[in-house]
């Protein structure tokens, strides 16, 4: 059992954005009757993440009422309006378990993500790794950040570009893993894509 505790990974689901282009917060997205954030938690659990952190922001109280977040550590980013960088910092700050070697980061608005893709990206869960999934040669999610990179990522994480400044500064260390055959890397950020994937956003309560 001691060996089973080596190279443990966490999953981080970024679900804080206001979703202006889709008519409501990403964390409220539903596919049929199921909140998409629950689907993402299922995927990360199936992939073998030892711990899951969900970073909420916009409509956080409503998300907690409509989704089952009991299997995750929930972090509320009050500064969600400043962009994804603050959500990454909040999520990393919540990973206080020294036994976690790396974290797999995904956005909630990615309904085509699969556990196979997460496992493929997380196949090298070491503290010094940086891994990005690629689709048609372009980098996307999931991304794997080894623990030794967390402080640097948190320091450089910025506005809507997230970890990009750190990744650009360490581009020679990134391992690219093709995930075209095992997942859909599309992010749902338009009403047209919402319709394509059968997604809806329930009305947001005033004052939430």
Automatic annotation (TrEMBL):
Gene3D superfamilies, A to Z: Spore Coat Polysaccharide Biosynthesis Protein SpsA, Chain A
Domain of life: Bacteria
Domain MobA-like NTP transferase: 11-170
Pfam families the record matches: NTP_transf_3
Xref: InterPro entries: MobA-like_NTP_Trfase, Nucleotide-diphossugar_trans
Keywords: Nucleotidyltransferase, Transferase
MF term (GO), any: nucleotidyltransferase activity
PANTHER family: MOLYBDENUM COFACTOR CYTIDYLYLTRANSFERASE
Protein name per UniProt: Molybdenum cofactor cytidylyltransferase
Species lineage: Bacteria, Bacillati, Actinomycetota, Actinomycetes, Micromonosporales
């Amino acid at each position: 059992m001691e060996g089973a505790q080596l190279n443990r990974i966490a999953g981080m689901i970024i679900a804080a954005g206001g979703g202006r282009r889709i008519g409501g917060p990403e964390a409220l997205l539903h596919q049929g009757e199921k909140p998409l954030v629950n689907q993402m938690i299922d995927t990360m659990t199936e992939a073998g993440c030892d711990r899951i952190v969900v970073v909420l922001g916009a409509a956080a109280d409503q998300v907690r009422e409509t989704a089952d977040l009991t299997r995750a550590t929930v972090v509320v980013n009050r500064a969600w309006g400043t962009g994804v960088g603050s959500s990454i910092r909040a999520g990393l700050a919540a990973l206080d378990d020294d036994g976690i070697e790396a974290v797999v980061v995904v956005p909630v608005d990615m309904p085509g993500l699969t556990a196979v893709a997460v496992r493929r990206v997380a196949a090298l869960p070491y503290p010094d790794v940086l891994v990005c999934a690629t689709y048609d040669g372009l980098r996307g999610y999931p991304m794997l950040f080894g623990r030794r990179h967390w402080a640097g990522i948190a320091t450089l994480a910025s506005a809507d570009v997230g970890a990009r400044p750190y990744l650009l500064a360490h581009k020679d260390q990134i391992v690219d893993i093709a995930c075209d055959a095992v997942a859909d890397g599309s992010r749902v950020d338009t009403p047209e894509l919402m319709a394509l994937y059968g997604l809806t956003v329930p009305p947001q309560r005033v004052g939430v």
